[in-house]
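Known limitations

Files may contain more than one protein. Parsers should not assume a single record per file. Below, a two-record file is shown to illustrate correct handling: read the sequence, read the token line, then continue until end of file.
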Amino acid sequence: MNELLTKEQVFEALKPIQDPELSVSIVDLGLIYNVEFQNDGKKILVEMTLTSPGCPVGPQLMAAVHTKAASLSGIEDAEVKLVWTPKWDPKTMASEEAKDQLGIF
């Protein structure tokens, strides 16, 4: 595991990336499911989902996550894995801030 970089720091680094259709952070939406360090912390694997399987900005979001993850200190390689399980549910996965922005109560 990368001792210089934590999962929390990765989530914070990804927070500025917004879903352009919703104008909400993908981290706040709960689209980032997991961050894993591999190869003695030199590689980062980010597991994420999209708001729907037909999300038109999916490739754009995945590319933005890859670019940001690969640019982090000590990271030599990054991989973004798209997962569909569990199914994304903003009522249970989004932050309170995102729920407020989306009007979910």
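...continuing to the second record:
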Amino acid sequence: MADFVKGFFGGQKPVQAASGGDDDFADYAGAPDPTPAAISSFTTSAPPSAATSTVNQVPYTKWYRVWERVTVNDFKLELYILPFLFLVIVVHLFGTRRNRKRATNWMKAHAPTLQQEFAQVGYLRPRPSADDVTSMGLVQATEKAAAEASSIENMIRQKKADEFTTYATGRQNVAFVDFKLSLAKRYNPMMQLGEFALSLFFDSMPAPQERAEMTSYVFDGREAQIVPGYGKGEGKKSANSTFDGFVWAVVHKDMMKRLREDRYDLSLTATKDHAKLPVWCTIMSENAEITEALLTPELLKAIHDAGDNFEALVVSDQPMDQPKKLDDTVPRKRINLSMKLQSSAEAYQSTLPLFQYFIRLPDFLVANAHFRPEAMRRIKATREEQITKLRRLDEEEKAEERKLQGDKAKKEKRDQLLGRMSADEQRKYLDRERERDSKKKMKKTTVKA
């Protein structure tokens, strides 16, 4: 009973000695119990864990104390990009300022002539505001408005980083004049280099050239349409500003091929050298009589003085692009002048006489560009031929359109008729239609044979 209680509470029973009479288990009875082998220190002793270092850890700080949580190493990529970005910005600013300076130099050189010839130069009208008149009086307000309008910065306007424009109006025989200055892409050297490289391999892409392009639009007797009330307040009626329509040009030989390919009006002319012109210039004219009348000594001297800076002077009444409609053949007389830009305002002294001649050329044309009917007969015949071609094309397009409309109406009528028929009636109708079509084809084949 005592042993049972000890076993119940975890006590260990006494080991009884093995029976000595059992010979079969004699070898096992005396053997001691095996003891477990000691575990090697190699497997039990794990390397002590390294103590966590707090030297490289980022301390936790307030969210706005960014400088305590970042280092320069976190911005290596940005440090590589920033110099290139800074270089791009510097080149862009330098290029745009250089282009604006060139445009301003051109305006400084030509502004006195424009202000002398036109009532308004630039896009700002010299008109005083109501506030200025109220605060300082009419006289001072008018002077202030005139000073603002005559400012070089207000006279010229930047359309793009490489293109500047200006405008002039308020002159007899001239409705208005547009000026366009095309400059190099100094703000983007890679694009500038690419355009130059392409010009070496492709004739259709000329090398970029800084130039001033001017277009004078004449009234040609339409003062009342363009400027309502023109001449009504004067004591006498304004003089007639019409002159004969023609195409005539003096061009630099380097520009001759490109102008003939790009401009439809110059493709109507014949090219011929003139003994009075420099060897690098040529005449593009529709009639020799026009050349003798327009090639004045003043123009010859101005072209000689301009030298290689001169590109082209064109008088035209035809469109620059190939006319596609009858409305495009309506004569719109204008005068074009193209010259190269210079680096400073003083360098324009050689081209100023040609620029002044261009401004006053409409007066010369109104007074002298009236030719004999024999000289204008061929010019008019060329224009009538072009008008006849366009009229024929227009009639063919209208006939084709009428045919399409008739076919559409027939198809709608046929569909409505078939929709009101039964299935048998539709089959019979379609059979008769096929028979008619086959007979028509047979007749056509017989006639061709």
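Parsers that stop after the first record will miss the second one. For reference, the second record is described as follows. The chain has 15 helices and ten strands.
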